[in-house]
Amino acid sequence: MTETEAPAETVATDRRTLLEARDLRVEFASRGRRARAVDGVNLAVGEGEIVALVGESGCGKTTLARTLLGLERPTAGTVHFDGEPLKYGSKALKNYRKQVQLVLQDPTGSLNPRHTVYEAVAEGPRIHGLPDEEEIVNSALSRAGLRPPERFLLRYPHELSGGQRQRVVIAGALALNPKVLIADEPVASLDASVRGEILALMLKLRDELGLSALVVTHDLGLAWNIADRVAVMYLGRIVESGPVEQVLTAPRHPYTQALLSVLPESPERVVLTGEPPDPTRIPGGCRFHARCQVLASGKAAEAGVDARCRGELLDILPASAGAQAACYYADATG
Amino acid sequence: MTLLELDDVSVTYRIASGEVPAVRGVSLSLDSGAALGVAGESGSGKSTLAMALLRLLPRDARVDGRILLGGEDVLAMKWGRLRAVRWAEASIVFQGAQHGLNPVRRIGEQIAEPMLVHGLAKPDQAGKRVAELLGQVGMPAWRAQSYPHELSGGQRQRVMIAMALACSPKLIIADEPTTALDVMVQAQVLTLIKELVAEHDISLIMISHDLSVLADVCGQLAVMYAGRVVEHGPSHEVFHDAKHPYSRALAAAFPTVGDPASRLAPKGLGGDPPDPMHLPSGCSFHPRCPIALEECSSLDVELWPAGDRRTAACVHVRAKEEAS
User: Fold this and answer.
1) What's the pLDDT tens digit per position in B273-315?
2) Is A264 on the interface with B (CB under 8 A)?
3) Which residues of B touch A230 (CB under 8 A)?
4) CB A232 within 8 A of CB A247
5) Domain B2-89+169-323: which CATH number of 3.20.20.80, 3.40.50.300, 3.40.50.1260, 3.90.226.10
6) Of all helices (H) and strands (E), which one includes residue A133?
7) Closest CA of chain A from B40, distance in Å
8) Is CATH 2.60.120.1060 correct for A17-248?
9) Domain boundaries, chain A
10) I want to staple B215 with a disulfide (CB 3.0 to 4.6 A). Which of A25, A45, A266, B235 is the partner?
11) Predicted ipTM?
């Protein structure tokens, strides 16, 4: 490995780090080749912090989220929770899932159509043998904004609207009193007017319960709406990260710049051609160089970094709280 | 010149438990070469309206009113004429390109099919035209030999657009053409649609729940709620200065990155879109409306003038209009 290892002790944020990926790699076999879905990622989620992980489909963001949940085993590197490395024994994982809960994209798909709201929310507490099931369910429902809970307990998913279903899914996650929510596109399948309500709920949960969240999304507007920090992922790596205000208003990585430029109403568009290359064929040098508009325009050559862009591997970004970008051109030009 | 005119169009589904009014008295018109965006959430009737334009609705749907395409009444057309009009005069690009293509046929054949069916190309010339169409949507000609599963989502959507262009229609109806796509691919497809509309003088009706996307592509915007148009006007004005509280909420749902007002302040609407079987009385938006007055629960407001070339169906707009 020519790339730098993650520092042994990562001070990630000014908040206490709760969930952390350290030099994480996840590989799959794909048609006889190795797909490096997550190819060296350092990422930390602090206590009471909302981090948005953004990227296009195929960039590895969902694999990274699944690995942080312990659903996928890393090929190399570790997941740390509360300072301890994650253990993969069934008992340890069961305990871990009480702390870190998943909220999926499509509430219709993640709820059993034959279970009432009560049964859906009570499933977690039952598995974990928690006492006072009814009280837990009631309080989870009201925290998720389904008030009064009695009105919803005996309803079936098909009797609820999309927004209400997503609230039931969130209530199911809250029932175990987790410390971290990992939400994969939590509003992508919801109607526009309901979207804001669910996002407001996530902010409220953070403010009132101190809940941390990692929100996986392709939607930069969502990151602007609720996240404290954002990490932009491209082809298995975080290419830029930092406080939302900084990264989304003054992006330094050409990929982040391009993503922001194609939002409706932005003045100058950089529409990248093609689609992200597949993770079985990660280009050498900077993994973005083949699509990079800065390299293509000759600006990287002017700054004298074009050879490095094409041929030299970049260091893995540390799990730092400040703004940082993995780009030779950004480094050279300040 | 007016290409499409809708006059008081209603669509009612008859189901076992009664009638469901999906579209309720929509009047709109579209000039040749112009682009109209229709915005709304699920259940607002926007997709039903699009399907009604080419009579693609199931049998249990009743369409009332008048739909004039190039001066011809679509609802009165005989079956043979209607078949000719579909594809050749107007074609639809559906959302979810995965399901619109036949998985076991090469895409070249699928693009050629409408041309052959309509006798617009001989089998021996079709290949050339397919290559030309693929070029127009930014794909290499050899892709004609590919099967849908060999293409990415964005490429499949391009194929759907090539099919829609195949018979050189005057009107393209695009129903959420970019919903399932990534941001960058979405930008590619939207740029493509804009170019095609401008270069070929095609009219466009684009349907989406994302006002910002519609405002970007279309000159005019109609916002639908519970089967009705509640606001209509030039798209940038509707997007930036909506007169109807629902359009305002919809516009705010997609924040502008960098706008301090929306930072850590997601904006949504309380409540849920209404069930078309049980529409609220009066203005159907009143239970969710942040500025509803007492009279809104009984008074059904129609579209009122709301400035230059603009209309909105809100009691507050009416009050202003009457005051001036």
Assistant:
1) 888 888 999 999 999 999 999 999 999 888 999 989 999 999 9
2) yes
3) none
4) yes
5) 3.40.50.300
6) helix A133-143
7) 9
8) no
9) 17-248
10) B235
11) 0.83
